[in-house]
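=== Structure Prediction Worksheet ===
Name of assembly: unnamed complex
Input type: mixed (protein and possibly other molecules)
Chain count: two
Listed entries:
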Amino acid sequence: MRGIVKRFPGVYANDHVDFDLRRGEIHALLGENGAGKSTLMNILAGLYRADGGSIVIAGQPCAFRSPQDAIAAGIGMVYQHFMLIPSQSVTENVILGLREPRWSLNLSQADQKVVALGKQFSLKVDPRAKIWQLSVGEQQRVEILKMLYRGVQILIMDEPTAVLTPIEVRDLFAILRAMAAENRSIVFISHKLDEVLAIADRITVMRGGKVTAAGLDPRSVNKSELARLMVGRDIEFQLERLPYRPSPVVLDVQSLEAASDKQLPALRGINLQVHSGEIVGIAGVAGNGQTELAEVITGLRPKTAGQVLINGQALKDHDVLQAINTGVGHVPEDRSRVGTAPTLGIADNLIMKSYRRPPIASGWRLNRREARAQASQLKDDYAIAAPSLDTEARLLSGGNLQRLILARETSAKPSLLVAVHPTRGLDVGATEAVLRLLIRQRDAGAALLLISEDLDEIMSVSDRVAVMYEGRISAVMETRQANTETIGLLMGGSTLSS
Amino acid sequence: MTTPTPYSLLPTPTPRASPRRFAFPYRLELEPRMTTPRWLPWATSLGSVVFALVVGGLVLAYVGGDPIDAYAHIFNAAFGNPGVLSDTLVKASPLILTGLACLIAFRARLWNIGAEGQFFIGAFGATFVVQQMFDKDASPWLVIPTMALMGFACGALWGAIPGFLRGRFGVNEIITTLMMNYIAFFWNDFFIYGRWSDRGFQLTPTFPKNAWMPRLSDFADQFPAFSGITIHAGLFLGLAATVAIAYLLFRTRWGYEIRLIGDNARAAEYAGINIVRNTVFVLALSGGLAGLAGMAEVSGVVHRLQERISPGYGFTAIIVAWLAKLNPWAVIPVAIVFGGLIIGSREIQPSGLSRMLQGIVLFAIIGSEILNRYRVRLVRAQLSQSL
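=== Predicted Assembly ===
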């Protein structure tokens, strides 16, 4: 790819980017969110069209008009969000959308081909299994199989490890290496430095739509150099904090049970305490009840048994307001669909929790001047970058939106702050800012419950770590005494035998 | 990773530089707008009306009329002199109230399609007061406020029922509000055909004077200019309601909650707002406003309950609310335009013109929403990737 240019409103997503990929290599494309790495690869995969530049594949200039064109040219992309049909089998998903066979569908023949492909690249998947029965890691393998079935020579993986457990990540790396050994080329998009160093043959770093370093040898760079290339400044991996001195219990969860949206048991007897001045991290693979736990504690989901005490006060069901008034702050998992109102302005979004109390409320009226004054103060204090207080929330970047939510949730000085995936999708700089804010709350004496998919983050921020598996807490330990390997095993369902 | 062997395994990577198909040399590009200029929603609303007028003009021309002439005629018939302007404002009065009714529900993203039924049931409530509660000697200061209260309450009930069903059981309010229109129509029929029928005709006896809301023409003795001006207190009720709704939406806690629910109900729930209660209350307020319009119409214009008290105010209200971009202040001018359309198009054939224009306006206004959110550009299609 030479001189690729892609403009989006107001920005150059790709500003004359060059990128080359060799046969049989794993090439990591590293960069923060918004650096333009996904855009570049979407152009290669035919989803976007470049505004300028050229693509040459094996000496042939190409212009893709659609993903089909790209696949025909041997280029396939696996997205972060899988595109699979839950009620259909693996094979059915793999052959979905293919022109051949035209009329008759010979599924068992296709099954065999899927199995054969799986063997070739050590991708173990039962072709007859339905997608909904598979774990996230297995679903990802189906996506890879889909591409292999189509004869893809260049496979682009967009942040493939974001949804995986450490063990699944190891399996994925083995698969990628097997593919590279078979002379296929892989582009590995990521913003996680450790991973990139572990898997890549070469590394290209992007920042602000430009390439800052091309084709680096992972043996000749270290983590902090990469981080600097990616962010443009030095990043601290160790955040400052006060020594760990847990004080009284703030959150006390007692044999809590609750159902999922599908009315299946999601929490099966949770016992957990969080003290003032500590961060308890909940590690676990997505879908093991973490979301439900956060929702029950914040009053959004009714419990089916057990109870939740906050500062000794029992939480009632169907009463979010009580949780808010008891001092529970909540950084929700879904920033845009739960945490903010997209077409209301920043000011209206900032007063979502405080509009009932004076001085913003005066009787049944709303004191707009006071609301705007407070919002303006928060906007400055938390460095929310936006042209005005009336800027619609939907126009904010992920990092800014999260700052807005944190501003709202922490400014009320909560005694308990539940933060669910607070850094998901944020770049390194924004992640650092969010984690700093969380630690500041801890140091100020709040109890924090941190739910995250990112085990490294949990290990670096939490004082204690609890592992959730199938609606239960399988272990709680002090982070100092825990190691990533053990926790990874617990996340996969092993039990502590020692 | 040695010599770059061509990908011979590949199924022929054909360079697709020149497709044989005919390609339109331009394509539309949509860019999301970072900010929407203040004037733009007004411009698109106005554009929608112009668009409807052009399409309507084409139809008029097709059936052999002169569109310019027809529109001039409509305009004159609606706004040409104080007399017809007053008629237009009389038609605009219920449209303001029902338009606000739809607006407040739409703001909370509750699709109240039942303003027409709520209008009728409000008229019923007002008539009930006249027929059953007071005789003709009672003071109008007592009768008329009671009628207004009752009209509001009946409409509110008519709105609260679908609200409760939606909030408590998740029943789609579009269906229930629409269906309850018919219940309201036939409910009224039951009374005007039977119990309250005036000598077997399908209408009630004319209300006694103490149930008539004052008109400007009533004061023609003091102000001769008012003679023949039929504007009644309902217009002032509408203006007052506009102020009240605007205040409610932007200066009160409840209004903030309504806006939050409408923008993102999940966020509202997360903020501790009781969605069920608000659904009931918002639809009750919405129904109440439509009911008040019904009361104003029977008390200020018709002076009796009969079948045809509305040319579809409650349905036109949906268009009024959208054309006003859910801005309470804009409801007033929009309602006046539509009132003029109702008055004006009575004057010309084919008589369906006003309905047709309304339909096209709604169509255009929904379509034009994209202009407020995106910048549309026509760009020359190019094969940009192989420069």
